[in-house]
Recover the amino acids of this structure.
């Protein structure tokens, strides 16, 4: 099998390309909630196109193996193979990240900027667009979605990974966390 | 073999892509690569039309839809309770027409599967290479004695197609006195949106709780003995509104006399197999079947009501090159009671399978293996929602319900021996996700 | 299974969805490639690496890795302000999943920093960076910088194998001191056996048990960055030298011993500190497991001196003749030799200076003996038979060879000594040359004794033991000496001498004594193992001392006083070739040996001793030989004086 893959790679036909073609029918079903090319139109559902592959893959695996609480997705991904998860992650990661900047009042943005600079920028980048490998891009991500995620990190009823993220969120008031979310949501490319 | 397959596939893919890009101006002069007619511009039809154009712009797509606006049935129960403005459920067809889809606001009145044409109410004839039929459902008023289309439209609304009846029901509810009885009757399955009646009961109850009608009673007269997401509904009803004889919501299953036989419009009385129930508002959901056009075209070959399709392609088992999708179709695994759910999300999934299939066909490529998903949210309170998801695959032409990828929201957490209640935040978030889902699935069909 | 999705998505990209997006993507990619690498601030790294709650990272393969960096420690490091990714340059994105690369470019960075520091106004900073850059360069030539046998891509020990990259204290800081105590631990990660030995040693125990930072750690002996294989001479020498950084007295006395002298010449064939004291496991003498414990010492000696016996144990390897407390016998011997040297030299140098003064002042006044160079003597007196001339010549040459080869050991600290030994082919060759010359020298000495005995025997009936022809000192000599001094001061006429003047007798008896003393001590040292069969090891201490002191006396005396008496006093200057031709000009004979001349004239034996002036050729040959020997002697004198002055 490895030899075959090697041969394919030498011909310029990587296994990944073939896998991407196979994953298309499954990926299409995701569009219903996450939009074509992973650009969501609903503010409680995240855009996923252009997020780092590792991030997407990690989150899906965490759902699948019950390492991360989910409301809806966890039930679905349990029916997917690890290969499908990887291929889906690769599929959505290759799209460009399309921020949907959501305007917010200047006062709220200023408050959010302060929180972001102090607690978020190190891992997500100052505007959310230059994150660490294991963190998602969140510039122009839906604010409402982010607030719900932040609540999951805060609320101990939810099993969430990433101790640092939990610690950071719990050190802030919900209002401050929401302001940070609004700030990131207001950012464009 | 695998190597060869992939290689030859890529060769074809590249050739086809090249040809279609290069041949666009030429194609316009010489006529389209293929013509697709879509009958019905709901979730199924609109999504199918859109995805065909997305996948191959050289295919001509004509969408025949009688209404200028589409109103989403999903979440329309929130309109009844006043939680949602009906405008948030409406979408027009300009998005699709911008994509080059011909929108024909006429009623399709005839399908000739031999000549492969569709005739409209205006007498226009549209030839097709592939026809997508997505007519939704028609109500069989005759299935309930005393019920006619007129009665339904004026007195005993079904509100099972979002639109004027939804608003009528909302008005009736508002006018209902405290201590009044709101009767919802549920037809024998299959019917569209299986959890819909029970969500409606909850939405109505919520309205009553917050609008000075705490003594109101919502009575569900069900022709069936069980229903979708039953434990979740019962849990929510109990927690939010009271459930049972003493509670605000009461459910009467078919086996206990819930099956409706007749209604009397004057007195708003429902006669079931055992009893009579008088209501202050009566919401009778009549039995349904596939949309008329499908029936007339001879596509409704399943119990004379529904159109059976092949799960691997959604192509009708009655006629070649005709694909029936959405609530009108049936397929899947009837034996284990896991057929296609009649849900918007399912129609969306089916539409994409059809789109992929016809585009493959026009480009001389083998058909892809489909995957279907379904997600169905029920919002039973302003901060209480839950869902069912389902994953279906087709393996060797057989419909497979993937159990591990499917299921309802948890009723309890923890273990079976030591169950723990599901935190309210879970329920609240799911109610919020329902809204996100609605906006996305509308966008996936109409933008 | 083939499918259509690929083409569908291809077309999708080309269509209306995001017009221009497909075209924009590669351009954006190209831009990103040209953009400068984003730098990662240290505080971002420390978010994980200074996290008290999660010091151990569990890798995907289940292995656990301590990733904690104490930020207080880092703060105290000289690298506190250096960007993490400056060294860990393979990290461009966080979190970095894989373990870090092993090479982090210390040497390049430090070279660069030094170049940058060229403009820095703070001279201390420049100096410090120069030291660091020098050290990193030194490291590159060390054995640690060479590739590993099993993994050629890695150095035997890279910087960070020894230095904790995050805890490099500034010079003089507490971190540095702490680091010093950890040194054995650090080296011991690889050198486990050596560490075990070391920890049991006095050095190791002082470090571990007493936290005594003054005790020796690995780098004190092996050096820090320039470490070479201990099998290589430079490292052996360096280690031996480094012992002396702490053990100054021991090193001084060691260097005065034969072992040390050879070592100081740059050779390693003699015992070095660690040969006797054992390298890593050095312990006190009273420790039964110590290599220098009385019970183990002989074994120690036998490592080199295979036939060493019990007597070797009496040898005092670090004996200091200046230490009366510990070595009163040696002290006495040394004092005796010193008194002897000072007395002899003081007396004769005064004698020489006064003589020079007298002759010069006479000369200025136009008085005194002067060879008439316009009418040189044609008649000569046959003073020395060929056998004595040969004896003298060979003896002179052998003596010079002995001085050269002997003092090059004695003055092993001088550059000339190293040159000489190197020229000879090392201390072993030097030893052979020295012994060969010694055998020749002693042979001549013994031969001369036989000759003297025979001569005396032959003329036993007429030989006047204390007469003018006898070499034995007599009262007459004392009188002559007194008169000579009177003459020096212009109080009397120059005394008249017979066959041997008193200074000639001294010139004879001094080497006679010297040959005895040097010869005996030299024989003791000739084959130590053999000597030790009969004599206790302490004779080596005495022999070394006396041999050297007496040799020095001889070297200085011969090349100053003897040269003056024979060649350099104005009457003889520049030289006398009599000892080589055997003939002395008759006028000169008359002047210096007037009594003999007159006696021979009286008894009519003079004629039989008169010879013709040596041929021009013989004269020239003799002059060349004399010149050569004088020059050689003066050269040796210079070398010895250099050695003495720089001791």
């Amino acid at each position: 099998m490895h030899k075959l893959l090697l041969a394919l790679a030498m011909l310029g036909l990587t296994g990944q390309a073939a896998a991407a073609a196979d994953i298309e029918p499954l990926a299409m079903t995701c569009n219903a909630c996450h939009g074509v090319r992973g650009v969501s139109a609903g503010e409680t559902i995240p855009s996923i196109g252009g997020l780092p592959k590792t991030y997407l893959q990690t989150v899906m695996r965490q759902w699948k193996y019950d390492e991360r609480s989910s409301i809806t997705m966890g039930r679905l991904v349990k029916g997917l193979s690890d290969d499908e998860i990887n291929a889906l992650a690769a599929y959505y990661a290759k799209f460009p990240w399309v921020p949907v900047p959501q305007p917010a009042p200047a006062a709220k943005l200023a408050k959010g900027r302060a929180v972001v600079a102090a607690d978020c920028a190190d891992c997500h980048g100052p505007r959310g667009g230059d994150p660490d490998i294991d963190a998602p891009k969140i510039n122009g991500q839906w604010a409402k979605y982010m607030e719900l995620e932040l609540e999951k990190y805060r609320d101990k009823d939810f099993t969430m990974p990433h101790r640092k993220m939990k610690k950071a969120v719990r050190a802030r008031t919900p209002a401050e966390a929401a302001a940070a979310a609004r700030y990131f949501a207001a950012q464009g490319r | 073999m695998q190597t060869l397959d992939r290689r030859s596939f890529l060769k074809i893919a590249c050739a086809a892509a090249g040809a279609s890009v290069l041949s666009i101006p030429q194609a316009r002069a010489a006529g389209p690569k293929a013509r697709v007619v879509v009958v019905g511009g709901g979730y199924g039809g609109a999504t199918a039309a859109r995805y065909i154009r997305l996948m191959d712009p050289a295919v001509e797509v004509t969408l025949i839809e009688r209404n200028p606006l589409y109103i989403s049935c999903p979440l329309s129960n929130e309109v009844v309770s006043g939680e949602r403005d009906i405008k948030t459920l409406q979408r027009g067809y300009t998005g699709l027409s911008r994509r080059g889809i011909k929108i024909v606001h006429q009623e399709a009145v005839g399908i000739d599967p031999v000549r492969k044409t569709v005739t409209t109410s205006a007498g226009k004839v549209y030839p097709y290479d592939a026809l997508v039929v997505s007519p939704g459902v028609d109500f069989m008023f005759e299935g309930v004695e005393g019920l006619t289309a007129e009665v339904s439209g004026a007195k005993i609304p079904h509100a099972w197609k979002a639109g004027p009846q939804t608003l009528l029901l909302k008005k009736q509810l508002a006018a209902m006195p405290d201590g009044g009885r709101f009767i919802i009757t549920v037809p024998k399955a299959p019917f569209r949106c299986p959890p819909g009646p029970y969500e409606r009961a909850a939405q109505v109850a919520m309205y009553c709780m917050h609008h000075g009608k705490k003594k109101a009673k919502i009575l569900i007269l069900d022709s069936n003995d069980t229903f979708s997401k039953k434990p979740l509904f019962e849990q929510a009803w109990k927690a939010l509104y009271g459930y049972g004889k003493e509670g605000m919501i009461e459910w009467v299953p078919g086996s206990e006399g819930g099956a409706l036989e007749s209604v009397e419009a004057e007195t708003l009385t429902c006669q079931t197999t055992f009893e009579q129930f008088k209501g202050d508002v009566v919401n009778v959901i009549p039995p349904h079947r596939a949309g008329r056009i499908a029936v007339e075209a001879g596509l409704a070959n399943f119990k004379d009501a529904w159109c059976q399709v092949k799960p691997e392609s959604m192509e009708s088992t009655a006629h070649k090159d005709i694909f029936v999708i959405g609530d009108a179709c049936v397929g899947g695994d009837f034996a284990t009671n896991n057929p296609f759910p009649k849900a918007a999300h399912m129609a969306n999934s089916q539409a994409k399978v059809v789109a992929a299939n016809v585009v493959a066909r026009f480009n001389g490529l083998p058909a892809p293996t489909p995957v279907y998903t379904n997600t169905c949210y029920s919002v039973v309170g302003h901060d209480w929602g839950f869902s069912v998801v389902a994953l279906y695959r087709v393996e060797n032409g057989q419909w497979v319900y993937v159990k591990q990828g499917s299921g309802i929201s948890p009723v309890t957490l923890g273990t079976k021996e030591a169950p723990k209640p599901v935190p309210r935040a879970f329920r609240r978030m799911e109610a919020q996700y329902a809204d996100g889902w609605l906006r996305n699935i509308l966008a996936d069909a109409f933008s | 299974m083939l499918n259509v999705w690929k083409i569908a998505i291809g077309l999708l990209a080309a269509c209306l969805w995001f017009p221009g997006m497909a075209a924009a993507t590669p351009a954006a990619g190209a831009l990103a490639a040209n953009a400068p690498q984003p730098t990662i601030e240290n505080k971002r790294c420390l978010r994980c690496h200074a996290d008290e709650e999660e010091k151990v990272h569990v890798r995907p393969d289940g292995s656990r890795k301590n990733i904690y960096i104490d930020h207080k420690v880092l703060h105290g490091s000289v690298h506190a302000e250096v960007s993490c990714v400056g060294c860990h340059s393979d990290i461009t994105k966080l979190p970095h999943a894989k373990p870090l690369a092993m090479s982090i470019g210390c040497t390049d960075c430090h070279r660069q920093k030094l170049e940058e520091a060229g403009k820095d106004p703070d001279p201390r900073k420049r100096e410090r960076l120069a030291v660091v850059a020098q050290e990193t360069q030194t490291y590159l030539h060390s054995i640690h910088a060479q590739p590993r046998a099993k993994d050629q891509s890695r150095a035997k020990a890279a910087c960070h194998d020894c230095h904790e990259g995050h805890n490099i204290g500034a010079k003089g800081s507490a971190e540095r001191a702490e680091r010093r105590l950890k040194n054995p631990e650090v080296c011991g990660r690889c050198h486990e056996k050596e560490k075990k030995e070391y920890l049991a040693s006095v050095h190791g125990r002082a470090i571990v048990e007493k936290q005594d930072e003054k005790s020796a750690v690995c780098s004190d002996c092996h050096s820090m960055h320039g470490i070479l294989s201990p099998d290589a001479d430079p490292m052996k020498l360096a280690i031996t030298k480094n012992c002396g950084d702490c053990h100054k007295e021991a090193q001084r006395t060691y260097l005065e011993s034969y072992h040390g002298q050879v070592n100081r010449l740059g050779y390693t064939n003699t015992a070095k500190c660690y040969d006797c004291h054992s390298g890593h496991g050095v312990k006190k003498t009273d420790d039964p497991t110590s290599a220098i414990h009385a019970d183990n010492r002989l074994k120690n000696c036998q490592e080199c001196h295979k036939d060493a016996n019990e007597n070797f144990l009496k040898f005092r390897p670090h004996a200091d003749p200046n230490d009366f407390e510990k070595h009163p016998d040696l002290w006495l011997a040394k004092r005796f030799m010193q008194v002897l040297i000072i007395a002899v030299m003081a007396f004769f140098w005064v004698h020489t200076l006064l003589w020079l003064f007298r002759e010069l002042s006479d000369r200025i006044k136009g008085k005194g003996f002067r060879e008439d160079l316009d009418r040189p003597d044609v008649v000569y007196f046959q003073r020395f038979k060929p056998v004595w001339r040969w004896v003298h010549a060979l003896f002179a040459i052998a003596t010079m060879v002995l001085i050269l080869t002997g003092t090059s050991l004695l003055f092993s600290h001088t550059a000339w000594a190293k040159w000489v030994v190197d020229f000879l082919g090392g201390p072993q060759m030097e030893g052979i040359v020295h012994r060969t010359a010694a055998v020749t020298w002693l042979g001549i000495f013994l031969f001369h004794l036989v000759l003297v005995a025979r001569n005396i025997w032959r003329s036993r009936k007429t030989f006047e033991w204390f007469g003018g022809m006898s070499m034995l000192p007599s009262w007459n000599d004392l009188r002559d000496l007194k008169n000579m001094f009177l003459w020096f001061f212009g109080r009397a006429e120059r005394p008249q001498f017979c066959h041997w003047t008193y200074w000639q007798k001294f010139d004879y008896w001094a080497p006679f004594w010297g040959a005895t003393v040097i010869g005996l001590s030299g024989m003791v040292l000739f084959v130590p193992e053999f000597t030790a069969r009969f004599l206790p090891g302490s004779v080596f201490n005495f022999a070394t001392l006396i041999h050297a002191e007496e040799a020095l006396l001889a070297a200085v005396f011969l090349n100053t006083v003897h040269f003056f008496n024979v060649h350099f006093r104005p009457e003889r200057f520049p030289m006398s070739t009599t000892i080589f031709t055997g003939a002395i000009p008759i006028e000169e004979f008359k002047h210096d040996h007037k009594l003999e001349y007159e006696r021979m004239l009286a008894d009519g034996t003079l004629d039989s001793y008169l010879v013709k002036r040596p041929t021009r050729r013989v004269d020239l040959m003799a002059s060349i030989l004399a010149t050569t020997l004088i020059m050689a002697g003066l050269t040796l004198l210079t070398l010895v004086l250099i050695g003495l002055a720089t001791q």
